[in-house]
Structure formats: C-alpha cells, structure tokens
Amino acid sequence: MASTTGVEKLVIIGSGPAGWTAAIYAARANLSPLSIVGVPKQDPGPVLPGGQLMLTTEVENYPGFEHGVMGPEMMGKFQAQAERFGTRIMGDDVVRCDFSKRPFELHTQSNGIVRAHAVIIATGATANWIGLPNEMRLATMGGGVSACAVCDGALPVFRNQPLAVVGGGDTAMEEASYLTKFASTVYVIHRRDSFRASKIMQERFLSRPNAKVLWNKVVVDVLGQDKISGVRLKDTVTGEESTLDVKGLFVAIGHTPATRFLKGSGIELDDAGYVALRTRSSKTNIEGVFAGGDVADSTYRQAVTAAGMGCQAALDAERWLAATGVH
Ligand code: NAP
Q1: Active-site residue, selected from the candidate residues 92, 93, 152, 297
Q2: CA-to-CA dists, residue 150 to 177, 180, 270, 302, 313, angstroms
C-alpha cells in the first residue's frame, strides 16, 4: 500500500529484528512508515520476510522470553506490534536505489518506483552455507544444522554430544570455543592445514581438552533423516572419504551482507561489503539514509543488537525528518 501523496516519509527496507523495531519506533512517532519486507523465496535469501530468524528454531537469548520462543513466532510478534501502530507493509524486493534524487527513488521488483524522503536499510546478512541439499534441509527443520552456535549451541539436544564446526576463521574459533562448554567433543573441520583465525582465538579453542581439529577436510554430505547423525568428509589432499558421527553441525564460513541492491547507489560500504556507518550513529554517508542491524554489523549479529540498531535508525530518521521540515 503506497502513500496517497506519492512520496513516503520513511521507507524501511527489510523485516528482521532491526527492520521491525525501526518500524515500531517510527510508527509510534506518527511517521506512518512503509516497510518493504521482501518476498518468500525457495532458497532463503537475505530479504526473506522476517530475516534470518525464520531459519532458526528456538531463540533462548532474547530478553523477555524466559522460556524461549520460536524464531518465526518472534518475528510474527514484532510484525504485529509494528502494524498495531500503523506500519504499512509491501511484500516486494527493492532491486535498485537512486539516492542522488530527492525524494529518493527505490526501484522494486513488482511495485515500480517507491519515492521516499528518508530510508532505513535493514536488510540483514545471510550466513554462508556449504551448499549441500541435506545441509539446508536439516537447517530449516531444526535438525541439528545451524549457522549460529551462540544462538543454538546451548540447546539441550547438543549437551554432552559430539559436535562439528566447519571453517577456519575467527567465527569458527569463537563458535567452537563456545561449544566446548556443552559438547563432549568439538571437531573443527577445515579445508586447509592452517587456520586464518587470529592466534589468540585459535589458542582459546585449542587449549580446551575436548577440542579436536580435522585438517584438510571438507563436508560432502550431511547424514540423518530428521536429526543429523553424522557428516561425510572428504580429504582435500588424498581424496579419501570418511564418516564422522556428530549430533550437531555448525557452519561458520562467513556471512554475506544483503547489499547487492545498493550497488551504484552511492552508499558507502566497508571492505567486507557491510554498510559503513558514522561512529555511534545509524547515519550512512548519504543524508536521510540510515541503516541498522546485521547489514551494518559484522561483529555482534544478534537479534537483540539488531533490534537496538533498528531503534537507533528510527530515532535518527525521525530527528532528521523533523530538522528538514518533513512532517
Ligand atoms: P572468514 O574470516 O572469511 O573465514 C571463513 C572461513 O571459512 C575460512 O577459514 C575459509 O577457509 C572457510 N570457508 C569459506 N568458504 C568455505 C567453504 N565453502 N567450505 C569450507 N570452508 C570454507 O569469516 P569469519 O570467520 O566469519 O570472520 C569474518 C570477520 O569477522 C573476520 O574479519 C574476523 O576476524 C571477524 N571476526 C572477529 C571475531 C573476534 O575478534 N571476536 C569473531 C568473529 C569474527 P579458508 O581459510 O581456506 O579461506
């Protein structure tokens, strides 16, 4: 549902914790925001409505849910709260932005051009997956395959079980170290014979008594029907295949921020492709364009930190609109 004036005061792109929190704050400030929430996709992409939490099962670390909450249910609650205060919703993908014009022009897949005085980018990031059919199947059904140990690792199903982490960077070391607190053994599976992770992070993991490294190995299949029972490994040097019994697989091979639609828009990105923000603010390099959540944060990547950043973006947008005389 587009604005009757033809120009939106504020458009929020993305519908994870950052996008919905921005919408709640902006709607309560009477900005009547339009949220462009993405469209459901076969292959869950970054602009999946509801974001990465739609791929999560139980969320136990979001304050206020003492008994935990399912990721999709939580996003449903966020959306309902945003709608209650007047957020309008468009199920579409933004494919290109023109921030050189004022009002800004957002080119959508199906609804033409949406014009807006201010924009909040909250499109998130996606965890990179190995790309195996059984990996995705078990990840979407809560079958013990995850891309976030901090989110899922403490679940009872993983306690005192052998678990595996794939990757050799700082995230893999961090996730693997975290898992050593719960697991019987944590195997880090890495495709080369040395880690790219910083020494200190490596040592933190390797010093744990239940830490094991499988060098020169890639996962070629994930085994198990409803729950993972093991992984099939291939040695990258000898080509030899083997099976490793594990009850959990944590994929930690990097994240990709959802910023492709910003190509050519003039928005400054950092070296890793995340939206670059001004210090202690949600402001981008373009006046009137703000960002929050995982699209602008490669460090924390938690639902609660994304929600906080969404709040900051809405407050910054509200102040900016007031200062520029848009009511
Ligand atoms: P990363 O540094 O890009 O590491 C990704 C790892 O995954 C690499 O070891 C890579 O192997 C492996 N990999 C990539 N694609 C793969 C595939 N298809 N199959 C198997 N392995 C694959 O990503 P990251 O660890 O998420 O870190 C991202 C950034 O955040 C880094 O700058 C990192 O320092 C930072 N970070 C910092 C902290 C901290 O300081 N507390 C914590 C987490 C992350 P190769 O090594 O062979 O390329």
Answers
A1: 152
A2: 10, 12, 25, 9, 25
Catalytic position from the list 92, 93, 97, 151: 151
- Give, using CA atoms, the residue closest to atom 2 of ligand 1: 169
Instruction: Please check whether residue 147 is in contact with residue 46, taking contact to mean a CB–CB distance below 8 angstroms.
Output: no
Question: Which residue ranges make up each domain of the chain?
Answer: 8-126+255-323, 129-251
For the CA of 198, the closest atom of ligand 1 is: 34
End-to-end CA distance of the chain: 19
Domain 129-251: top CATH class: alpha beta
87 lines ligand 1 (CB under 6 A): no
Report whether residue 167 contacts ligand 1, using a CB cutoff of 6 Å: yes
pTM recorded for the entire structure: 0.81
**Distance from C-alpha of 22 to C-alpha of 4, rounded to nearest angstrom:** 22
Distance from residue 249's CA to the centre of ligand 1 (Å):
16
In 192-325, the DSSP E strands lie at 211-214, 217-223, 230-235, 241-244, 248-251, 255-257, 289-291
Ligand 1 atom with the smallest distance to the CA of 168 is 9
8-126+255-323, which class in CATH? alpha beta
Is residue 170 annotated as part of the catalytic site, yes or no? no
**Ligand 1 atom with least separation from CA of 174:** 42
* DSSP H stretches of helix in the chain: 17-28, 71-84, 133-140, 149-152, 170-179, 199-206, 303-323
Decide if 8-126+255-323 and 129-251 have a common fold. yes
pLDDT tens per residue, range 286-309: 999 999 999 999 989 899 999 999
Q: Express each pLDDT in 89-104 by its tens digit.
A: 999 999 999 999 999 9
- 152 is annotated as an active-site residue: yes
CA nearest ligand 1 atom 31, residue: 170
Q: How confident is the model at residue 14 (pLDDT cuts 50, 70, 90)?
A: very high
